[in-house]
Amino acid sequence: MRIDIVSIFPDYLAALGLSLVGKARDAGLLDVRVHDLRKYATDKHRTVDDTPYGGGPGMVMMPEPWGAVLDDIRKTSTAAPLLIIPTPSGNRFDQPMAVELSSADHLVIACGRYEGIDARIAEHYAAREDWAGVREVSIGDYVLAGGEAAALVMVEAVARLIPGVLGNAESAADDSFSKVDGPALEGPVFTKPPTWRDLDVPDVLLSGDHGRIAAWRKEQAQRRTHERRPDLS
Ligand code: SAM
After folding, report:
1. In terms of Cα–Cα distance, which of 36, 130, 136, 118 is closest to 81?
2. Which DSSP helix (H) or strand (E) runs through 19?
3. Mean pLDDT over residues 163-175, rounded?
4. pLDDT digit string, tens, across residues 17-69
5. Is 96 a catalytic residue?
6. Helix axes 19-26, 148-159, angle to 10 degrees
7. How far is CA 214 from each of CA 49, 174, 204, rounded to the nearest angstrom?
8. C-beta atoms surrounding 131 within 10 Å
9. Which residue of the set 38, 115, 128, 224 is catalytic?
10. Domains in the chain with CATH codes
11. What sign results for the dihedral spanned by CA atoms 12, 16, 19, 22?
12. Residue 73: pLDDT above 80?
């Protein structure tokens, strides 16, 4: 999979060279390219924002540099890319959306700042036949200063679902929000030592009885889901 990310703070995305995503890139499973939007500004101050039509506070990102960088990215792409625009007013990003996006060939993430990106960018690329559509996506009901943190969240959630990225030891099948007809949340997990600061690992996990262990885990997951996320019970 290829993912292009456009930002006025390309250094923000350096974390994508680390850990699981970094390894996936090194293994050739994921091709991540970061672009500096300011390189596509045309004035000497590298301006990418202007005052909002209709008045009001803040600044809005201008369509011209966005159009230029997105068209440039399209020229180097073999498959029609899906444009993702992080915004608090978008559809909520969740595990089913991560699963859906993990089968895409090419994602382009447009990281807004200020009051966001001129709405004609979403409208234009949604109408383009050489693009696979536009998704305006929110990572939660709060407001960030920019789309970069949202891009990091989405790329990590999507990357770990690409076949070959997770080893067997880290299978995604048992994760929270991933079971087909089990509880939504995963229950508590433990490792050695069996006693730490007077706290014991539950006996059942030391029993070697796989049937009892599976039943205990399911019950713990159900209880946790009921207590913490009754909306998902
Ligand atoms: N005026 C916008 C609104 O109220 O919907 C908020 C703009 S926010 C200060 C600047 C940028 O941060 C957005 O364009 C978007 O890229 C990003 N952002 C902020 N909150 C986000 C969220 N919950 N999910 C995804 N992106 C977010």
Report:
1. 130
2. helix 19-26
3. 82
4. 999 999 999 999 999 999 999 999 999 999 999 999 999 999 999 999 999 99
5. no
6. 60
7. 55, 11, 10
8. 19
9. 115
10. 2-159 (3.40.1280.10), 174-232 (1.10.1270.20)
11. negative
12. yes
- The answer to whether 57 and 48 have CB atoms below 8 angstroms apart is no
Is 170's pLDDT higher than 70?
no
Query: Among residues 38, 46, 128, 160, which one is catalytic?
Result: 160
Give the whole-number percent of the chain exceeding pLDDT 70: 99
User: Is 90 a residue whose pLDDT tops 80?
Assistant: yes
Tokens coding 200? 């014991």
Confidence at residue 180, expressed as pLDDT on a 0 to 100 scale: 82
Residue from 87, 93, 152 to probe ligand 1 pocket by mutation (most atoms less than 8 Å from CB): 87
Which residues contact residue 86 at a Cβ distance below 8 angstroms, ignoring those fewer than 6 apart? 109, 110, 111, 112, 136, 137, 138, 139, 147, 150, 151, 154
Q: Using the predicted structure, report yes or no on whether residue 183 has a pLDDT greater than 60.
A: yes
Residue 169: the pLDDT is 57
- State the distance from the centre of ligand 1 to the C-alpha of 5, rounded, in angstroms: 16
Closest residue (by CA) to atom 7 of ligand 1? 115
Give the distance from CA 113 to its chain's centroid: 17
- Token pair recorded at residue 23: 């390894």
**Residue 87: pLDDT above 90?**
yes
175 is catalytic: yes
Q: What is the enclosing helix (H) or strand (E) of 86? A: strand 82-92
Mutate to test the pocket of ligand 1, among 144, 148, 153, 154 (most ligand atoms within 8 A of CB): 144
User: Considering 38, 88, 128, 229, which one is annotated as catalytic?
Assistant: 88
